Amino acid sequence: MSTPPTPQDQQHPHPEPLWRPDPARAAASRLVDFQRWAAAHHGAPAAPLAPTATDTEAATRYADLHRWSTDDLTRFWTAVTEYFDVRFHTPPTAVLAEPATMPGAKWFPGATLNYAEHALRAAEDPANADRPALLHLDERTTEPTATTWSELRRQVGSLAAALRTLGVRPGDRVSAYLPNVPQAAVALLATAAVGATWTSCAPDFGARSVLDRLQQIEPTVLFAVDGYHYGGKDHDRTGVVAELRRELPTLRTVIHVPLLGTPAPEGTLRYDDLVSSDVEPAFEPVPFDHPLWVLYSSGTTGLPKAIVQSQGGILVEHLKQAALHLDLGPDDRFLWYTSTGWMMWNFLLAGLLTGSTVVTYDGSPGHPDTGALWSVAARTRATVLGTSAAYVIASRKADLHPGRDLDLSAVRCLGTTGSPLPPDGFQWIYDEVEPDLWLASVSGGTDVCSCFVGGVPTLPVHLGEIQAPCLGAAVESWDADGHPHTDTVGELVVTKPLPSMPTGFWNDPDGHRYHDSYFDTYPGTWRHGDWITATSRGTVVIHGRSDSTLNRQGVRMGSADIYEVVERLPEIAESLVIGLEEPDGGYWMPLFVVLAPGAELDEDLTARIRTSLRTELSPRHVPDEVITVAGLPHTLTGKRLEVPVKRLLGGTPLTRAVNPGSVDNLDHLRFFERLATTRKQP
Question: d(Cα 648, Cα 286) in Å, to the nearest integer?
């Protein structure tokens, strides 16, 4: 069992927050309204949020609510379903079946419902008929295209009826090879309405990557694009789609989505024909734990895990997360930069559950320049904008001034995820985007399609710290012996079940792989694989993945802390550090850097890297070597491949160290294979 790293001191070095919520705005939030209602109906702690409340008082009020939400799961999740008026076609016999253990917790036994019915509820109000449910932009358009609530409901009804006519039944798998376009949202909702199970891959995935995923679940339907536009270029995918059709023998129907305008191939159906009728949607009542979709792990070693999440579990978790933690409502426009191959696309559609307008963008966030995503937010008047920590840092390095150069006055909340947002990223946002902006940095995972820790609209934002654990998520930081602690780095664990935890993995009938993924280290407790600090003021700091921890002289260190220091230097575009135990008992810790254009790794830059790490972290954080590389390998969703690189440098052949179909650029990975061979030579 591992011991935690020793990153920078997190003992509240910055006592004053970067931002405090406006008292009137905080008091009007859905979170405050929910607590007031839950106190009256379900025994939640009642504490008025006074306009003059101090930071400590606001933190105490939220901590009391969070404690209630995790101490009394039955009351809390009952309150969520009643507050949001979840429509059970058949009522549940309980909230949690006994025993409520992990893995295997069974939520709302006996209940039936339908996720799509809730996603389209706003369309039932005639006042919303002409209000946009979806706004779409791509690289070639300057103004967004709107799909109204009434039109979205009509298209979903038409497509769901077509799927039923094609023989799709509850439990069948419907797959998609589509970008982040309105057609993908319609197809997911139609699939859920039928009670079938959705799964999607982004069209930048190659055939092998898609087949590694879809062959596991044996889909009967494939929505397939002819190509997509990205980085100023058209990317034809007809050859990939043809290969998918050959290699997926269970397919009965292929539905052609012609984004590049090519005719439908022989034997396929035209998407536009299937959404042309005017049919009232019919929502199949399914059990609470009925599979809604299958998401996938990155699959860097072996096949990706096919993670199954339920209609009911996702519904109640996303209602809570979108409405209470992002404060989304009918007046919002919700934009999160994502692709259909990342769980954030599924979470983006949670905006529909709150009646918000969802903004979909198909294109590069960096084309024609690094500021493209900020421009999309300005043009769509997004109120809640989500991006990655990497994009924030790229914007800082590009010396962008989005708050000065664009009209971002509509943006009230900026969300970040994907990797830890370093303190420099926090500061840049408040310096260059907007000083009066709620920064909702969040951390969770594909595994739950939600957040363990994230934004709270009533709390201040502190430099480098996530605001708090999310309601219902019993998050703690544990030491190696399984004891919780504060203000000390430990393993992120979740001690009680969440509704959106997987019902299991596909083709894992005895649950062995599911158990080993999360519950092997601490039996009965979810270990997520992140190093965190739970601070005494209730905030959380994420230090990176615990399965790629550096161990030098018996002291463990988080790689994310090194990246934060190194990538602050303007000459460094990206970095990767690994620690390799050598056969002679030695330990080699190289730092690989991708240089910014025009930069050179000379003695001066190397010395500044070493000095920065020694000064800001510790002498143990200074690498043995600094090595330039042309580029770093990532997963298909953009995460650095630390563990496979370590395996390669340890002599593991590439085909065993990593699943090639999970990597964005194999040439970048082959560099490390060659380096391993070179190091072995005398």
Answer: 46
Which ranges in 84-176 belong to alpha helices (H)? 115-119, 149-165
- Please give the Cα distance from 462 to 580 (Å, whole number): 35
List residues bridging with 491 in a β-sheet: 478, 531
Report which DSSP code applies to 321: I
Single pTM value for the model: 0.87
Alpha-carbon distance 77 to 71, whole Å? 11
Q: Could you tell me if 468 and 538 are in contact, meaning their C-beta atoms sit under 8 angstroms apart?
A: yes
Q: Provide the token pair at 218.
A: 């044996």
Q: Range with the lowest mean pLDDT among 172-186, 268-282, 426-440, 585-599?
A: 585-599
Average pLDDT value for residue range 463-479: 96
From 165, 321, 178, select the one nearest 241 (Cα to Cα): 178
CA 28 – CA 35 distance, rounded (Å): 12
Laid out side by side, the sheet with 468-469 consists of: 443-445, 450-454, 468-469
Return d(Cα 117, Cα 326) in angstroms, integer: 22
Beta strands 233-236 and 227-230: pairing type? antiparallel
- Please, which pLDDT band fits residue 1 given cuts at 50, 70 and 90? very low
Distance CA 543, CA 10 (A): 11
Q: What does the alpha-carbon distance between residue 659 and residue 300 come to, in Å, rounded to a whole number? A: 5
Tell me how far apart the alpha carbons of residues 19 and 209 are, in angstroms, rounded to a whole number.
42
Which helix (H) or strand (E) segment is 473 a member of? none
The DSSP bridge partners found for residue 331 are: none
Residue 643 pairs in a beta bridge with: none
Give the C-alpha separation, 129 to 122, whole Å: 9
Q: What is the pLDDT of residues 42-59, one digit of tens each?
A: 999 987 666 677 888 899
629: helix, strand or coil: coil
Taking a C-beta distance cutoff of 8 angstroms, is the pair 676, 654 a contact? no
Which amino acid is it at 572? I
